[in-house]
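During the no-cost extension, the postdoctoral fellow (Dr. R.K.) reprocessed legacy sequence entries with the updated structure-token encoder. One reprocessed record is reproduced below for audit purposes.
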Amino acid sequence: MTLPILYSLRNCPWAMRARIALYKSQQKIILRDIVLSNKPQEMLNASPKGTVPVLILPEKIIEESFEIMLWALKQSDPNNLLHIEDGEALPAMLALVATFDQEFKGNLEQYKCAKRYQEDNLLAKRQACEPYLQDLERRLNQQPFFFGAAESLADIAILPFIRQFARVERQWYLQAPYPKLRQWLNNYLQSKMFSKVMSKHPLWLDNQATVYFGDY
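Re-encoded structure tokens follow.
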């Protein structure tokens, strides 16, 4: 059987959430870690856009992280992250993730830049992110995860971006009015899953060794 190949960048949030979904779905794949300054020609041949993640399947190529997540969980969803018993759950998850992908992520990038370049609008950029966090905190005040008592696709899709936000102004974040969100994030960061997903592997171009990922 030909295994899927995932081109990935360890700390890229888009690649991170693709790996999380593949881990959760117990899909066995071949993982190829790269750096964007030295992209493998094999990846560019498959996906000329040159960004990660890229999942190479025998029948098709998937170039978007969220599509990789959906593909993985439709193959196998042992933790019921799609909440299939609730016909309204998946559309609601898709809407929440789209809001974070299309709105929050842009605000987060501006916030990160304001901190990195010591701009004088840091507070305004942080405040632009906060309504999205307030929505998550409200949800978590009612339940352990964004869509109820059980983990969902939305939790793992949004996780890498909350992790990024928490690292921008660490001291402020630790005292911010989001205790439930902090607890939610810490539970993930301290989990076996996250350790596996964030394991460091040799760059594929250095030795082209086969690294297997998933199917735990």
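The CA atoms of residues 83 and 193 lie 20 Å apart. The first strand starts at residue 5 and ends at 8. The remaining legacy entries will be reprocessed before the final report is submitted.
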